[in-house]
Design brief:
Mean pLDDT: 87
Number of helices: 14
Structural class: alpha/beta
Largest sheet: 9 strands, mixed
Distance between the termini: 41 Å
Strand content: 35-45%
Radius of gyration: 38 Å
Number of strands: 33
Shape: extended
Strand order of the largest sheet: 16-15-17-18-23-22-21-19-20
Low-confidence stretches: none
Helix content: 25-40%
């Protein structure tokens, strides 16, 4: 309470005392007990009114002791139970958090992680992935600007996420407790299989296998690839104490159409502790033909090579770059990409009026726009000879197919002639254009569907810069290449309009994200945001069915089916308002990445400790770790002064109190005939 408030309260006491004395005692003929009581009531009333007006504030200071946080992070993945150290991990955890000295010095907080990170003091060791990188990201977010140690109890075998050694930084120490048998056992395993998801009928597709060996003697092993009871390939591999890795490349025939499941196995006569990592299943979808795309251009330009590389990242696509007069038969191609058309394209346009091949027209500084106006009627160009740079603006309402914004607004501008572009008829705009900060209200990338023909228009050259910038932003060409593949897929697909479009993979590895997306269009072929989509998934072996709702996300609906066991599944997606349905199937391959290890990753955990200027420990050294933490003078409790301000009296109750005083005074005066 301030000095001013105290002085005002003292003055209020004097005024209230003086007024009540003057009214009921000084003027009174006889000083009865009634007068004294009335004087007391009047004193309380006047003082309470002054108290209400002054409204004094009381400040309370409280010293709080803030302990250093000590996150104890437990690996909750299934590799812990597979290595048979789950009970040991629980004992270590209980020993640390129950230590009274640790509790007195630190604010102990326990967490668990597998594919995700969350607070927990109970552990199941059933996680399907190990992501130690997510631990670093979450701890940095929780304990910003704080100096704290971390105890990480894990085998160090990470199966997803970025390299965790450098994720934690150097500001805070990480003390790994390495669990698992550190004894080196003889073990042969398939580290990785590289194989394309798709192959083409009557062709051969490559399989690349990376094999490794840990042991102390020379051995030989057989690497076999089989399909059912049929052995397709068998190779003898030799390992020594010096040669502990091997790479095997095999070409397999794609002689059956559809999803083909294969098994890769490596075996030897030696006894192994873990044989689960000796086998890996993989699948390939064999399709009967490629999508042939012709890029037709009368000029040379970097865009041509960038488009070819982006399109051919999908093994179903084959791209040929041609001059306008080099095409002998349009029927050899599924899609035509017409790059900066001019009068040399006249015969090609005429022939395509009969062939009806879907086209992707890209304009630029070398385009003859008067000629282009004569050959198509979706857009009308009135262009000048001046060049202009056009930035892109993503349209989130675009609904012809599911597409994510890959950061189009931050991509370099495309160059095209300056002028006006008029849209004729119905055109779906994915990207509109702007010049610097001014919107042109003109399309930059648009799509048209006229009866049985589909067309796409990209109004600007130098899209090769988009692919390069996308790689700079994401350290990968993947997002841009998927964007181009969506365009090609739209043009290569049958133009029969479907109200329900569903996208999914034909096979998934057990433990990875299983996501199915869908779009539903109304009678005007507009994306319906009020659709009610459900999916029923049935295990073809057990006949067990599970149903889920698809949730809306941007311009599509999706469902996550994580948690399904390995096996074959059929599914049915249904829109409840219209009863539109889509049916298909997928397979979850039996592959548990958490069972691929027989030893902890000591090297990585030691590197983590070294990087954070700490030390690694083993389960029998937990007492040493506790002693190190207790003796470390970096981690001290901090006293913080917490100041709270509260009103002396609640004004509502004070008003009620004043009202009661006045009523009591009035009744007392009335009863004693003083009114």
């Amino acid at each position: 309470m301030t000095t001013t408030a105290i002085l005002l309260l003292l003055v209020s006491l004097l005024i209230a005392s003086g007024l009540s004395y003057f009214q009921y005692i000084y003027k009174a003929k006889n000083k009865s007990k009634v007068n004294l009581f009335l004087a007391f009531l009047r004193f309380l009333t006047i003082f309470s009114i002054f108290l209400l007006l002054i409204n004094p504030i009381i400040t309370k200071n409280r010293l709080d002791i803030v302990k250093t946080p000590l996150p104890v992070v437990i690996d909750n993945s299934s590799s812990i139970s597979f290595l048979n150290v789950n009970k040991e991990v629980e004992q270590l955890y209980k020993k640390i958090i129950s230590n009274k000295d640790i509790q007195e010095k630190f604010e102990v907080q326990s967490y668990q992680f597998s594919e995700d990170f969350e607070p927990s003091d109970k552990f199941t060791f059933k996680g399907t992935q190990t992501n130690i990188d997510v631990v670093a990201k979450n701890l940095k977010s929780i304990y910003k600007n704080t100096n704290y140690p971390t105890i990480l109890i894990s085998d160090g075998n990470q199966t997803s996420g970025n390299d965790y050694v450098y994720s934690f930084g150097t500001e805070n120490k990480v003390y790994p407790i390495i669990v698992g048998d550190t004894t080196t056992f003889l073990d042969i395993k398939i580290n990785q299989l590289n194989v394309n998801k798709y192959a083409f009928h009557k062709n051969k597709f490559p399989v690349e296998a990376f094999l490794s060996y840990s042991g102390t003697k020379n051995i030989t092993a057989d690497f076999v690839i089989s399909q059912g009871n049929l052995i397709l390939s068998k190779q003898r591999i030799s390992f020594t104490t010096y040669k502990k890795t091997a790479t095997v490349s095999v070409l397999l025939p794609a002689d059956k159409i559809g999803i083909q499941v294969f098994k890769a196995t490596i075996t030897s006569l030696e006894k192994e502790k873990n044989t689960y990592n000796n086998t890996k299943n993989f699948a390939v979808e064999v399709i009967d033909q490629k999508t042939n795309i012709a890029i037709v251009s009368a000029i040379s330009h970097p865009d041509l090579g960038a488009l070819k590389r982006a399109i051919e990242t999908n093994a179903q696509r084959k791209v040929t770059i041609l001059k306008p007069n080099d095409i002998k038969s349009l029927q050899d191609y599924n899609v035509l990409i017409l790059y900066q058309p001019n009068t040399e394209f006249k015969a090609l346009f005429e022939n395509n009026k009969v062939a009806g091949i879907n086209t992707f027209i890209i304009t630029g500084n070398s385009t003859d726009f008067n000629f282009l106006n004569q050959q198509q009627n979706n857009l009308n160009f009135k262009m000048s000879g001046q060049k202009e740079d056009y930035l892109s603006v993503f349209n989130p309402q675009f609904n012809l197919f599911a597409i994510d914004n890959i950061g189009f607004e931050n991509l370099p501008p495309l160059q095209n002639a300056f002028g006006s572009v008029t849209v004729n008829g119905s055109l779906s705009v994915l990207l509109s254009s702007k010049i610097r900060t001014i919107d042109t209200n003109s399309p930059l990338l648009a799509f048209a569907e006229n009866q049985s023909k589909r067309s796409a228009y990209l109004l600007g050259e130098n899209s090769w810069k988009w692919r390069l910038q996308s790689h700079i932003n994401n350290q990968s060409f993947e997002k841009y290449d998927v964007f181009i593949d969506k365009i090609i897929q739209f043009l290569a697909t049958s133009t029969g309009k479907k109200s329900l479009v569903v996208e999914h993979e034909r096979f998934y590895n057990f433990g990875e994200a299983i996501e199915i997306t869908a779009q539903y269009f109304n009678k005007n072929y507009e994306f319906d945001e009020k659709a009610r989509l459900t999916i029923a998934v049935t295990n073809t072996k057990t006949k067990q069915t599970k149903s889920f709702d698809l949730l809306k996300s941007n311009n599509y609906y999706k469902v996550n089916l994580d948690g399904l066991k390995a096996g074959n599944y059929s599914f049915n997606v249904k829109e409840l308002n219209s009863n539109s349905t889509y049916s298909s199937n997928f397979e979850i391959l039996d592959f548990d990445i958490e069972k691929q290890f027989v030893n902890p990753d000591i090297e990585k955990m030691s590197q983590l400790a070294l990087q954070t200027q700490a030390n690694e420990y083993y389960p029998d050294q937990v007492d040493t770790l506790i002693k190190v933490l207790l003796e470390n003078k970096e981690y001290k409790a901090i006293q913080k002064n917490n100041s709270t301000k509260t009103q002396l009296i609640d004004w509502v109750w004070l008003l009620i109190f004043i009202l009661i005083l006045l009523i009591t005074e009035w009744f007392t005066r009335k009863y004693n005939g003083l009114l």
